[in-house]
Amino acid sequence: MLAVFFQDWKYRRIHVGLPLAIFLFSLYVIQHENKILFKIIVYNLVFFLLTLSILILYMSLKTKKFLNPFQNYFGLGDLLFYVAIAPLFLLQNYILFFIFSMIFAIGLQLGLKKIIRENTVPLAGFSALLLFILIIKDMMLDFQKITLL
Fold first, then answer.
1. 34, 82, 93, 96: which has the highest count of C-beta atoms within 10 A?
2. Tell me, what's the pLDDT at 74?
3. Using an 8 Å Cβ cutoff, are 127 and 8 in contact?
4. Could you tell me if 101 and 129 are in contact, meaning their C-beta atoms sit under 8 angstroms apart?
């Protein structure tokens, strides 16, 4: 997670191997039956892709032409990161994490406005930082676990 944060912060892109490693590690660590884990992943990905589709539709209708979100608003690394973490959450917690990671990213971007010189938000990096904090919290405290770890 920290590698995603540092790469996205510094270069505004992440290596494709990082989300793949996160996804594979998540599959290895989560102790659920294969059918249940598959359902968890599918539900989370359907939510994410539905949200992304609505965003694309909204932006396209607003500009009255098809808008590729990967050119203007959303990076491919962001997409890969949110896909990679799908095994780590039940659907309701994935939705909460998705929403709070957006708020967290906006808050950090505004809070670090003087330090950050670029106009783009390192969404995958800030989300990875939040996930790192949540995983540490889940490992240290035994109540109100957010992740499936």
1. 82
2. 86
3. no
4. no
Helices 123-140 and 2-11: crossing angle in degrees, nearest 10, is: 160
Q: Which pLDDT band holds residue 23 (cuts at 50, 70, 90)?
A: very high
- Residue for token digits 């599918």? 42
Given a contact cutoff of 8 angstroms between Cβ atoms, the answer to whether 145 and 132 are in contact is no
pLDDT at res. 97: 98
Which amino acid is residue 51, in one-letter code?
T
Structure tokens at 146: 């957010």
Full-model pTM: 0.93
pLDDT score of 6: 96
Compute and round to an integer the Cα radius of gyration of the chain.
16
Distance of CA 146 to the CA centre of its chain: 14
Residue 70 has pLDDT above 90, yes or no: no
- Long-range pairs, 34-43, Cβ under 8 A, ≥24: 37/87, 40/86, 40/87, 40/89, 40/90, 40/91, 40/148, 41/86, 41/87, 43/91, 43/94
CA distance 102 to 96: 10
DSSP state of 87: G
d(CA 140, CA 127): 20
